From TrEMBL:
CDD domains: DEXHc_RecQ
Gene Ontology biological process terms, A to Z: DNA recombination; DNA repair; DNA replication; SOS response
Span of domain Helicase ATP-binding: 26-192
EC number(s) from the headed UniProt entry: 5.6.2.4
Cofactor or coenzyme needed: Mg(2+); Zn(2+)
MF terms (GO), sorted A to Z: 3'-5' DNA helicase activity; ATP binding; DNA binding; four-way junction helicase activity; hydrolase activity; metal ion binding
Segment forming the signal sequence: none
NCBIfam families: recQ (TIGR01389), recQ_fam (TIGR00614)
Database matches in InterPro entries: DEAD/DEAH_box_helicase_dom, DNA_helicase_ATP-dep_RecQ, DNA_helicase_ATP-dep_RecQ_bac, Helicase_ATP-bd, Helicase_C-like, HRDC-like_sf, HRDC_dom, HRDC_dom_sf
Organism from which the protein derives: Sphingomonas mucosissima
Family recorded in the similarity comment: Belongs to the helicase family. RecQ subfamily.
Domain Helicase C-terminal: 216-361
UniProt name for this protein: DNA helicase RecQ
Length: 513
């Protein structure tokens, strides 16, 4: 019968109670059962191995992918009086640390996967006593995961060498496929998986297409007092957007990216953590390890890398439980660029990357509840309506745009699959130019076959065709057919468009005064 962990939780960590699934995970670990814990960021994963490490006989070996992360964790553990050490290339006290391990004087020993899989490390463990293997960021072991690290694959022989030592794999970011893979790769039984609830009910999710990034995000900032994070795609993009938003809103806005002088970066981050109204425009590097509970909004100026990344980034809003906003602005070119990038990765990884992108496509394209799609992605079965996302609050209309999509594809085909969207629209609406005359395109059957209200559908249809890979952009910006084109042309597939409810009512009201 394992000892009661609650007194240790209270005395050592100073928390009155376990949160969420922590208790379940800790109980399994104390009972010597291998476990995969899937818990969102901020749910308190570290405690699930730190606490048992202090109760069990022997040392808990923590495999972690980043030295900086290890040193943060080390400081936090030592601060509550846990006996911990790191064994990394930058540590100068490696001999001392080995000694402490062999003396049984360490609760936690942090190590990177590439060191954990060496013969040296195995020999060290053979001579000491291991209580638990904790594998942090365990999705790194899976090629399906968004952050595959081959070194994680080398861990298995070490784990198998100590058959009686339980394994605890931890991750915040795993879809079902990745989870199954983690279990298999690390040799954990399927009944050993514990998944925490992922819902963040106080976050309102909104997603719209991008027409003017600065104006759209400035509107959001004006509507949302309190601190916020805006994620931009590139370093240069963060600085430009920060400048534009500062001018447009009058709020304190700063940029943050890895290319900034470390001193400036530290200062901007510190200012943000203290501030009650500052907006930080950042690359995705920003936010890891920042504990600011009162972030009121997270905006994305472009498509995130995956649903996992989106969930993690938006999850930095509203940790205090108060109402908060997550707004994503996307464009068709985000999908076109992502597909180009996928074409360049290792062919073995392409199916996983493509599935990840398609999941994002479904999220941005849906007329249904955003939260439902997010939570279903994490294996939950939420209600059909959440009542706190853009689509639940003002349901969009869906219209059948299959006919327009066929015309669009036809125009791309007949003009030789080499022109961009602007030209295709000109052909379809019969907008004569020197170019169309020279190309002889005015004689084509697709010339001037779209008029009236249908014209307004051309842009969203073009976007939808790119998103579902019916069209692709070549390196010169020309459109060509992708694998999704055929079924649409042959009438085996349809395309419905989501028409957002009338936008900008507030804006027109503003103009009138
Ligand atoms: P994760 O690794 O899952 O992102 P952390 O382990 O960094 O999360 O924990 C997030 C925060 O929650 C930390 O500040 C931690 O001290 C706090 N925390 C963890 N467990 C509890 C608990 N049972 N009660 C209150 N706070 C907790
Ligand atoms: Zn909803």
């Amino acid at each position: 019968m394992p000892a009661d962990p609650v007194p240790v939780l209270q005395k050592l960590f100073g928390f009155p109670d376990f949160r969420g699934v922590q208790r379940q995970v800790v109980d399994r670990v104390l009972a010597g059962q291998s476990t995969l814990a899937v818990m969102p960021t901020g749910a308190g994963k570290s405690l699930t191995y730190q606490l048992p490490a202090t109760m069990l006989d022997g040392t808990c070996i923590v495999v972690s992918p980043l030295i900086a992360l290890m040193h943060d964790q080390l400081r936090a553990a030592e601060a509550v009086g846990i006996r911990a050490a790191t064994l990394t290339s930058v540590d100068e006290n490696k001999a001392e640390t080995r000694g402490r391990f062999l003396d049984g004087a360490l609760d936690l020993l942090y190590v990177a996967p590439e060191r954990a899989s060496t013969a040296d490390f195995r020999d060290l463990l053979d001579r000491g006593r291991v209580a638990l293997f904790a594998i942090d960021e365990a999705h790194c072991v899976s090629e399906w995961g968004h952050d595959f690290r081959p070194d994680y694959r080398l861990l298995r022989p070490l784990l198998d060498r100590y058959e009686d030592v339980p394994r605890l794999a931890l991750t915040a970011t795993a879809d079902e496929h990745t989870r199954a893979d983690i279990l298999e790769q690390l040799g954990i039984g399927t009944d050993g998986m514990i998944v925490a609830g992922f819902d963040r009910p106080n976050i309102r999710y909104s997603i719209s297409t991008r027409d003017n990034t600065t104006r759209q995000i400035a509107d959001l900032i004006r509507e949302t007092p309190g601190p916020g994070i805006v994620y931009a795609q590139t370093r240069a993009g963060t600085e430009k957007l920060a400048e534009a938003l500062r001018t447009a809103t009058g709020r304190p806005v700063r940029a943050y990216h890895a290319g900034l002088d470390p001193e400036v970066r530290r200062r901007n981050q510190a200012k943000f953590v203290e501030s009650e109204d500052m907006v930080i425009v950042a690359t995705v590097a920003f936010g890891m390890g920042i504990d600011k509970p009162d972030v009121r909004f997270v905006a994305h100026a472009g498509l995130p890398k995956s649903i996992e990344a989106y969930y993690q980034e938006t999850g930095r809003a509203g940790r205090d439980g108060d109402p908060s906003v997550a707004h994503l602005f996307w464009g068709a070119e985000d999908f076109a660029r992502a597909r180009q990038r996928i074409a360049e990765v290792d062919p073995q990884r392409q199916p996983g990357e493509r599935a990840r992108l398609n999941a994002l496509g479904a999220l941005v394209e849906t007329a249904g509840c955003r939260r439902r799609i997010l939570l279903a992605h994490f294996g939950e079965d939420p209600p059909a309506q959440c009542g706190n996302c853009d689509n639940c609050l003002s349901p969009p209309a869906a219209i059948d745009a299959t006919e327009t999509a066929r015309k669009y594809l036809s125009a791309v085909f007949r003009t030789g699959q080499s022109f961009g969207s602007t030209y295709i629209e000109e052909v379809l609406t019969g907008k004569s130019s020197e170019r169309s005359l020279m190309n002889g395109h005015e004689a084509l059957s697709v010339w001037n076959i779209v008029d009236g209200d249908e014209r307004a559908l051309l842009k969203p249809v073009g976007r939808a065709l790119l998103l579902r890979d019916a069209l692709r952009t070549n390196p010169h910006g020309g459109l060509e057919f992708g694998p999704g084109a055929r079924a649409l042309i042959k009438g085996e597939d349809t395309l419905s468009l989501v028409v957002p409810p009338k936008r900008e009512r507030r804006r027109r009201g503003g103009d009138a005064t």
